[in-house]
Specification:
This protein has 310 residues and is an alpha/beta fold. The protein has 11 helices and 14 strands. Helix 6 packs across helix 11.
């Protein structure tokens, strides 16, 4: 099997690609290195690793690459509402237009395993509960585009959509702006945080469990294909205040205050069921507590704001 990973030098790809290389799978990564990252340098000695410095918006490049691969993992994206709002043109061309063009150039036999987002649930039902059958209520452009792409993706037989929870954990191409990563960074370096609408709940998942979920899908594709799965920690449907309590267990000097006048521009608030993927035999290994410990170690080395999607 030959796998093409777009955006493979990014936050998730920088953990995923080495894991797949170690399984002796032929991997080609295409990335435009917009963050000037060097997260895959250590893989250049492996014969089953190929790297292309290119842009997924280049139709000739992508047509050439796609025809030579059995499985595609499209990670390349402008990720997160703030960055999409800052650069809506790139968000539209990368998150939407380039993905649609990619689908057009795939044969029906080629496999796609794609990350989408559980942020598409918006606020869930009256109890804020969501599973894969729940109505989608995307708030941000990022989530709206992911919903549209997912609908088209699921018209293909050989496809899986993973609605990822908010990812956390260390990566060679770090993102400090993700919620757990961000709160832990502030707790470690500033020992203080102001929270807006602290009762809003999110679901979370460690980056290494995201990678494990993709490997699980590759190894169990025939029984999992043509489906959408939430991918998150079932014991980590936490409010912002509850998340701060967890961080405080690791950093006792951490102080946080809820600001009750202002609203959070991100109005997502949901509790997510991950039962469907768990029924396929996948269970996360990395707890929120493990991830906070890992982040604290990492933040002993990092203290600048270049590590994020800002």
């Amino acid at each position: 099997m030959k796998i093409l990973i777009t955006g493979g030098a990014g936050y998730i790809g920088s953990i995923m690609v080495p894991e797949l290389i170690n399984k002796s799978i032929d991997i080609t990564v295409v990335d435009n290195f917009m963050y000037k990252q060097s997260s895959l340098n250590h893989l250049c000695a492996f014969k089953n690793f190929n790297i292309i410095n290119g842009d997924i918006r280049d139709p000739k490049l992508m047509q050439k690459l796609l025809k030579d691969h059995d499985l595609i993992i499209p990670l390349a994206a402008i990720v997160g509402a703030p960055l999409c709002n800052k650069d809506p043109f790139s968000a539209q061309s990368i998150n939407h237009d380039a993905i649609l063009e990619m689908f057009k150039n795939l044969s029906k036999d080629q496999i796609v395993i794609m990350p989408t987002t559980n942020s598409a649930y918006g606020a869930g039902d009256k109890n804020n509960f969501c599973d894969e059958e729940s109505d989608l209520k995307p708030i941000s452009k990022y989530a709206i585009d992911k919903v549209e792409i997912e609908k088209i993706l699921m018209q293909r037989e050989n496809s899986i959509s993973y609605r990822l929870a908010t990812v956390f954990g260390m990566s060679p191409r770090m993102r400090i702006d993700l919620l757990v990563n961000d709160f832990t960074y502030r707790a470690f370096h500033d020992s203080a945080l102001i929270i807006f609408e602290g009762h809003f709940k999110r679901n979370y998942i460690h980056i290494r469990d995201v990678v494990r979920a993709f490997i699980h899908a590759i190894e169990n594709f025939d029984k999992m294909k043509s489906n959408i799965y939430n991918v998150g920690l079932s014991d980590a449907n936490l409010s912002k205040l509850e998340l701060c309590e967890e961080i405080k267990k690791h950093l006792p000097k951490f102080t946080y205050v809820e600001e009750k006048i202002k609203k959070d521009p991100d109005q997502r608030n949901y509790i997510v069921s991950n039962q469907k993927i768990e029924n396929t035999g996948f269970l996360p290994k990395f707890s929120l507590s493990f991830g906070i410990d890992e982040l604290i170690k990492g933040y002993r080395m990092l203290k600048n704001q270049n590590f994020g999607n800002f």
